Amino acid sequence: MASSNSYKSDVLSVNATEASLDKNGLEKVIGMGVRLASLDFYRGLVMVLLMLEASGLYDHIFNMTTPGSFLHSIANQFKHYPWHGLHFWDLIQPAFMFIAGTAMAFSLTRQMTMGRSWNQQAKHAFKRSWWLFFWGVFDYAVRGDHLSFELWDVLTQLSFTMLVAFLVFRWKAGSQILLSIGLLILTEFLYRFIQIPGFDQPFTDQHNFGNYIDLILMNKINSGGWVAINCIPTAAHTIWGLVAGKWLLTKPDNKSKIAPVIILGALALLVGYGLDIAGITPIIKKIATSSFTLVSGGYCLLALAFLYFWIDVMKHTRFLPFFTIVGMNSIFIYLFFEIVVNRWLSDYINTIVNGVISPIGISQAAIAIIGALAIFMVEWYLCFWLYKKKIFFKL
């Protein structure tokens, strides 16, 4: 693994070059493999948070805190809001999909400078979406002792949103944003105006249009309220990530790079919260209402603007490698903790930790937290090992 100092020097040299180049020059540098440090960190941060969740750490902390206490309230933010409302954890999937769009902007721009045609890019895009769909279905394919067909996994959703973003990549930013708004309007129309008996309550769990479509697609409804057609409104997240990525690539100076990202993010927050407060469309993550999509997308845009300013402009790169090496194998580690950790390794490691530490007399709550951290470190070290071996899994 590169040391923090060497990583920092690489980032600084890249950004120094970037700052002195115009649009065409910038694209040439990107063609040689430049990475946006803030984007690498953003993706790595999201994956680290997901890894900690998969380890069970958040649940253990939540269970050991006193209801009503400050720590309990903080721990509760790492759970999805039951229905109408918003927690911090509700922003993780939108960030995952938003980052994919931003990374796509860099990837496709690099491919264009290398002379790849649209047909070549399209072939790769459709292939990638197929594999995302496959792994998303495979992730949920085993339920207990039987097979299951489900379309609620984030990778399944991403297979659709990435394809939409690719198809509009060469559009102007204004047209891309208009399309994203159109997708939100379409979602509103589907939920409000298609009246199916038993599924004619647009914002009621188990009785909305999304639940009806799930019955058609999978012959079942998710007991938690999730719906497969969330991929329609959340395609906006990937499109906005794409738009932001193109702005960061083509604007001539840092101010003009960040300003439109901040403005779009602020507008999304204003409209999203406005729809909720006015009682027009409630913020509901599980069916990705338009208000939720706008609010979560707004936070994603503002987070990218802040991280770009803090890391790429202000050059704060300390501790970045801890996160970036995870982000470089994001799809792999996601599938690893979803399939291997959750269904086998977690119990195995917790059994070892409990057997070794319990004789000391430490409380079960503390042992559970130690076990969760041990699981996380196994996951992180796997990413570290892959990074050292220069093994990067890509679709």
TrEMBL record:
It comes from the Bacteria. This is N-acetylglucosamine related transporter, NagX. PANTHER family: LD22376P. Keywords: Membrane, Transmembrane, Transmembrane helix. It comes from Aquipluma nitroreducens. The chain crosses the membrane at residues 41-58, 91-109, 130-148, 154-170, 177-194, 227-249, 261-284, 290-310, 322-345, 365-387.
